[in-house]
Design brief:
Elements: H1 3-9, H2 23-34, E1 45-50, H3 53-60, H4 66-71, E2 74-81, H5 88-108, E3 112-116, H6 123-129, E4 136-145, H7 159-162
Helix pairs in contact: 2-5
Bound molecules: flavin mononucleotide (FMN).
Flavin mononucleotide (FMN) is lined by residues 11-12, 14, 65, 114-118, 151-152, 154.
Length: 167
Amino acid sequence: MELLEGLQTRRSIRTYTERPVTREQLHEIIHAGTMAPSGMNNQPWRFVTIQSKETLQKLAQFTKYSQVIGKAAACIAVFVDKTAMYHEVKDHQSMGACIQNLLLASHGMGLGAVWLGEILKSAKEVRELCGLSNDMELMAVVALGHPAGKGGTASRKSVEEVLIREM
Ligand SMILES: Cc1cc2nc3c(=O)[nH]c(=O)nc-3n(C[C@H](O)[C@H](O)[C@H](O)COP(=O)(O)O)c2cc1C
């Protein structure tokens, strides 16, 4: 898939078939995440993959999007390593770039994925479920699997609406 085509056709996918994803696929997606740019190349991202049905059910309890996690073949919990940070804003920007890469890689591999942010309200519980220390701060959970349907049609503002000045 061409890069531009991929980023224009990616949509959040919230329903998945029963088909599992492989460990190799998850590693490939995470590898794409690690290819994101980061300030001073500090690469503050850390990941936990969750494929166990039992653990997915526990994770699902921490968000109102429990049905998404309940149907997902896997989730990737994305953390920023606070001990690796050097600038709060820039490190969070790096994390956003990383998470977007996870979504684009999933899409490019024919999988469907969605960025779950609402679950951050239970960041501590997710971190503890993952068995991590306070050094790790949850940035998002990406739920993914083989798409059971098409994504939404969330519209976008036109370039004319968002380009506020051409100087
Ligand atoms: C920071 C962030 C948090 C999000 N949190 C959620 C979420 O908790 N649940 C959900 O279903 N989608 C979530 N999304 C996905 C957005 O709803 C979605 O990207 C947006 O509606 C545009 O649709 P599209 O991704 O299909 O183009 C989140 C996206 C971002 C970037």
